[in-house]
Amino acid sequence: MTNSETVYFNGSYTPKNQTKLSILDRGFLFGDGVYELIPIYNKHIFYVKNHLNRLRSSLELINIDSAIVNDEKFIKIIKSLIELNSYVNHYIYIHISRGVDKTRNHVYTNECDPTILIMGENYQPFDKSIIEIGKSAIIEEDYRWLKSNIKSTSLLANVLIKNKAYTSDAYEALLLRDGYLTEGSASNVFIIDNGVIKTPKLSNKLLPGITRKFLADLIKEHGLEFDECDISKEKLLSSDEIFCSSSTNPVVPITQVDNISISRNAGPISMQLYGHAQKFIEDSYK
Ligand SMILES: Cc1ncc(COP(=O)(O)O)c(C=O)c1O
Prior knowledge:
D-amino Acid Aminotransferase, Chain A, domain 1, 2 domains, binds pyridoxal-5'-phosphate, alpha+beta, 30% helix, nine-stranded mixed β-sheet
């Protein structure tokens, strides 16, 4: 992404490097906002209705009027950004904060208008050759708050945890709360246990990932066995395969957790799902 790319900011299309935000914006001061990251494949917006529904749900959970997210309006803006910036395969980041207040005050009023930013984000998904080798992960205590189902811009805990993984030469941190898997610092987590694909059931302890939903749809379509259930630390570490899912990389096999080897390379069921996901994307977004 270059700094002269066009972004959408509070009703206008402006160059990224000339877009200014007030220091009294509650998103800046308190992380008081929510966001979405939506993949663009060959200029098409991936699972857009699901992403916009989750955005509305996040807004409702922090008491911001979700009617500000209108499907038709938002899709039009995203399509304009795709054209203005010549995006082909890209990501769109949507950020909505509670808005600019008169003073810095924890207590909010309904007087400020939400700040809406929509811009491109440039991530490079892993090549298939990397996916086949797999990645390593660490285990970390899930010390985040108990509203992890909100896609909140308050990401300090996730940032600290992801950086611990990074400095440990790992791709991701797998989070345990009371001895049970919740998700990754920036992904949902699946295991394969005796041929069954398992992932923690949705709750306030994890984000309802759109890729998680996409993979669940594919799993059902291809008749694979699926279970949303509790996964203990012991079950996680003795599983046959592990993979992480997120919008940037739908399936990332994890072959090692801390010093424990899970599989030599990416496991067969993870690779099968990776193949189904790639095929769906290629076929649907020609
Ligand atoms: C904490 C967390 N869980 C799960 C996910 C995966 O969500 P999605 O598939 O919607 O990208 C993300 C993505 O950013 C995340 O940050």
